Amino acid sequence: MQKTFNDVLYLESGRMISPVTIAYETYGKLSSKKNNAILLCHALTGSARVAGTKDNPGWWEPMVGAGKAFDTDRYFVICSNILGSCYGTTGPSSIDPYTGEPYALRFPVITVKDMVVLQKRLIEYLGIERLYCVAGSSLGGMQALSWAVTFPEMTARMIAISTARNITPMAIAFNTVARYAITKDPFFCDGNYYGKTPPNNGLAIGRMAGHITYLSDAAFNRKFGRRYATFEGIYDFNGFFEVENYLRYNGYKFTDRFDANSYLYLLKAMDIFDIEYGYSSFEAAMARITAKALFITFTSDTLFPEYQTADLVNMMKKINNPPVWARVESDYGHDSFLLEFDKQTEHIREFLG
Amino acid sequence: MQKTFNDVLYLESGRMISPVTIAYETYGKLSSKKNNAILLCHALTGSARVAGTKDNPGWWEPMVGAGKAFDTDRYFVICSNILGSCYGTTGPSSIDPYTGEPYALRFPVITVKDMVVLQKRLIEYLGIERLYCVAGSSLGGMQALSWAVTFPEMTARMIAISTARNITPMAIAFNTVARYAITKDPFFCDGNYYGKTPPNNGLAIGRMAGHITYLSDAAFNRKFGRRYATFEGIYDFNGFFEVENYLRYNGYKFTDRFDANSYLYLLKAMDIFDIEYGYSSFEAAMARITAKALFITFTSDTLFPEYQTADLVNMMKKINNPPVWARVESDYGHDSFLLEFDKQTEHIREFLG
Question: Is CATH 3.40.50.1820 correct for A2-168+274-352?
């Protein structure tokens, strides 16, 4: 579904967007008291389609549905595509009403808070005053955190998985590789590639760098080892290992489904996110949270290392709102939140009560 | 200095190169018994110039010289540029005698063993029958290991720093990003860019990916944190963090000094290196070593994780040639071998006796 708001959306940067459209899906039924709504926030390249059908599953299919962690027999689950993305919500590929052309790089830099402010409009449009829970992983976890800080009165519970108050400089470094790969692709044309050949090589290379951060050393060893995947043998200049084949395949497959400009804007939003921003200190920001909180981390996640969640947990203890922190032993790396369903389900079910 | 051999160099792949030139430097004086020669093997993009002058230092300046770890008052130190590189030794930018043009991608895939076989020619040319020691770090450590396995009778001692019997699939993944970045650059022209504009964007992006692997999470945090380095502020699409500035600067600076084809061939050599290759097993390969061995690792090195050196050390114990393993506590990551001079000096001095 899509909803278009004509009221100006004021962004953190001071810039404005209007009209603004948000794509969303809902699952389950809103109770008559409207007190069973859960907002799920997707990660970097996800969509509103968090659950789907057996043949065409959503991005968190094993977590959302009847009897699952986010039990649609009990909860009204909402998931919307984030601002700046390319799955139905306004982003750089949308038409700029002032020019009649896609925004491209005229699109304003957006922030996680801007995404959340747009989501709030949707929640209010759906007639919900207070969310039973906001949950998300990675960039989605940043949104959950931002909800709890920005709109504490609307956020009864927060589940923040594999996330952080801000990303590490090493994570920014990976995003930088993607940024250069895309913007230096000759088909990028300063972002004005709509209707023409898009910068697929650059986007694929950027995504390959991303994939390195989603796995872990152990996952790479288990998944690929040093198996060689080619025809000519190891002395063939064009020969490759299975791990290269995986990166190539996933890198280029990604170009079929994602817009390069959206990728740049969402990486930017991730880079510049800091929960402290706009408040006098990290403590002042976190002290706004009234939600009950659950944090989930995975031991092998190097993109969002556990010490970052420790910072959040310690701060919440300090402000007398001690959260639950479930540390899950897993060697899947950052991708664990898309793979370790049983362990997450257990902790989430217990937390939601 | 340079020495050209006209005899055919037979490569592991079955292909041949002739003539082949090797660039080298020597430091100190060869003893009359010719028993004080130490060969230093450089890493991925190094040169023969391991030591230089105060104003123009070599790549391992603090380690090589009078009274230093590799004491030129006692030892005759040799360092040569590796096969496939671009600092005076034959590589893809050299003239192919059959065409009168640079080899470019007609250059054969080369291996670490091929590098070592060429180094052996140089050592013999210098009149040395047995090396007091062969030492190197990273790709240089692979060469040291390969010397000890391939020419045990010529290798009295081996120092292998931050290295492995083969690189991890995660390391191959980083090299893959570089490979795609270079070969998809429109200026790459299938490697035939000599005399024209070289694929500098691709090479710079590839090098950026490399730089991520040279540091550690802790080093990124200390060196850059989340400091912002731009003029317009965080909502500027073209704004950047200091870490991005570092990657950009070092990525593009690298294009002034290195040939993209050489980079591709040396990454390939690194990817396909396996000390076991050509022998019946890892144990059979390692059992050939008669050299006394010193391994040095750094705790925060994720490109060559310590567990890889543990494999080497354990195998040498198994074959009754127990080595010394110096584990150095450092949070500089893989770059530690270019930064932790005091600690390395201590261990190397003790080992060389």
Answer: yes
